[in-house]
Amino acid sequence: MLFAFLAIIGAKAQTVVYDWNFSDEIWQPYASDGTPTGYFSDGTVVDFLTFHNPTSATNFAVNASSKNVDGVDYSVRFQFSGAGYSGAANTDVTPSVNMPTQRYLSFDVDGPVTVDVVAITGSSSSPRAIFLTDGTDLIGTFSCPGDNTAYKNTVSYTGDAATLYLYGNQACNIYEIIVSSNDTGIPSINAQKPVQSVEYFNLLGEKVMNDNLKQTVLIKKTTYTDGTTSTEKVITKTY
């Protein structure tokens, strides 16, 4: 009974609200070649993630790129293909505007969340940064060092319901965005869908059959009756 394991006294579980892993099957039709695709034109929404390119600047792209970050293998990346605001430079440690004007992503939250971004600079040697804002204030920065290595960075948002924005000071590439919450008031995006089955896996991809394994991190895979699936990283932490 995994539920007994996840309800350990003194532990607190994080719930994944969104998990946009660009190596997942939903993105594969748009990663068959390395050219930008009109699929990501201004206002396009995929799985609750909105793509913005209001100035018709260089278009976004999703293409093949293999990386391993914290034991997770990635095969596809999302490319901003440029900065999120005019006059940006890779030396900007804060954006000149907190409401991006070109090449940015947005998503809605109902309250405090933790945002993990797995990303890499779009340059082979130049360090760059990705900013998270609420359109008014800078929430945090995801660093992309200039060593051709992808890193996972975490930023915490502590405000109320809002639309959050992601954009770079120059071209950066993202492998995965995970939005998690400890607030049970934030509903799952698939909460209204009928569930067909639920499975749990460890980080090696092995299916967990019971709670005898002392795992602290599990991957929950939910299959819905409409054929779609979602994955959540279930994390227990002792406080």
Question: Please, how many domains?
Answer: 2
Overall residue-averaged pLDDT value: 79
What is the C-alpha radius of gyration, as a whole number of Å?
18 Å
CATH topology of the largest domain: Jelly Rolls
Give the N-to-C terminal Cα separation: 23 Å
β-strand amount: over 45%
Shape: globular
Profile the largest sheet: 9 strands, antiparallel
Number of helices: 1
Which architecture of the largest domain does the CATH hierarchy give at level 2? Sandwich
The total of beta strands comes to 15
Summarize it.
The protein has one helix at 2-6; strands at 11-21, 44-46, 49-52, 61-69, 72-79, 104-109, 113-121, 128-133, 138-144, 151-157, 162-168, 172-181, 195-201, 217-224, 229-238.
List the topology elements.
Elements: H1 2-6, E1 11-21, E2 44-46, E3 49-52, E4 61-69, E5 72-79, E6 104-109, E7 113-121, E8 128-133, E9 138-144, E10 151-157, E11 162-168, E12 172-181, E13 195-201, E14 217-224, E15 229-238
Antiparallel strand pairs: 1-12, 1-15, 2-3, 3-6, 4-5, 5-12, 6-11, 7-10, 7-12, 8-9, 8-11, 13-14, 14-15
